[in-house]
Structures are given as structure tokens and as C-alpha cells.
Amino acid sequence: MTNFYYPSGSIVHRLSAGVKLAALIIFGTLIFTVEDLAGLGFCGVFLVAFFCIAQIPLRVAYRQLKPALFLLLLIFIAQYFMVGFEIAVFVVVRFSILILAAGLVTVTTRVSEMVEAIEAGLRPLAKWVAIEKVSLAITLAIRFIPVLGEIVHEVRDAQKVRGMDRNIIAVLLPTIIRTLKMATEVAEALDARSFATLDRTRTDKQKL
After folding, report:
1. pTM for the model
2. Which of 6, 82, 94, 146 could form a disulfide with 107 if both were Cys (CB 3.0 to 4.6 A apart)?
3. What does the alpha-carbon distance between residue 60 and residue 99 come to, in Å, rounded to a whole number?
């Protein structure tokens, strides 16, 4: 899987993965309580400040948002015709801030640290939850957000050559097919590493 980690040795990088994930959850929740563009603007400035503290270059920050630009455009168009211009702008700005916030966590946290943090948080639920599977699923979901954006961007560029980049169906169908293919490859890779077998072995040991 593509590694989006960008090392800089900043204080944000040195924070534990658990703290950053918890902050992302809290920040994401607060974003949905904001009801005006001024409030979103404040959240955006707050997030930019953390990008600066983390010493993340502008090109790296933009790279987190770029793959999602086409999807954001589709969301804007849909919202514009359904509820109007102001709400469309508000929704797109909100999603952009959320994507950048998740991107900040992604570029400042190694995959291994993220998995360990999730497993530590789920450990009290070990009797009822398959910790390894849940942590892996959450980690994959976080990591695949920018990957899916890149797929959409690549498909759109390919269709642009054919003059079909504005055809939603022509973009969505190849995107869905490539996403399913990628999911199958990941599943096969996990199976090849005997992930399911190891998980059953741990479960049997816990029962004993």
C-alpha cells in the first residue's frame, strides 16, 4: 500500500498516534456542529496552523486534497441544483477541511503506529471484538481515502483524452471496477499472509 508518511521531526509527528486519531475524531465532530462559513473559516485557519507546525510543505498538503477535487466538484454541482449556491459552497468547504484533517494525520503518522493505537483503544473489548480485524479495517479505510481519490483522478484523465471526462457514468464505472479490483488484490494479499488463520489461532488460544 502507498505510504503517505512525510517525515519532518515536528512536534505533531512526535505526538502519539492515539492522540492524533482522537483529535481527528473530535475535530471532525466539531466540524459538523458548525453552521456558517465564518466558523468553517476559523476551523480552516486552525488546521492550516497545524500543517505549519508539522512543517508539511504546501505541495504535500495539496496532494492530500487534489485526488478528491473531482468528487468535490460533483458534490458541489449536486448541492447547487438541490439547495443553492451558498449551501453547496458550505458543504464542499466542510468536506475539504475534513479531508485535509485526515490527510494531516496520514502524513504525520506511520501505518504501524496507527495500527498499534487502534489496537490499544480496542483492547478492553477484546472479548467481543476481533481487534486485529477491526484495526486493520480502520487503517485500510484511512489509507484508501487518498488512494480512491487518485483512482478517480487517473480515470478522469484517461476519459478526458476520449472527450468523456464530463460524463459521470464514464468516470464512475471504471472507478468502481478499479476499486473492486484493488479490494480483491488486498484481500488476496491478506489471505496469502494467512491473516484469517492467525486470527482464528488467537481466538482459540483466548478460549483456552
Report:
1. 0.67
2. 6
3. 13
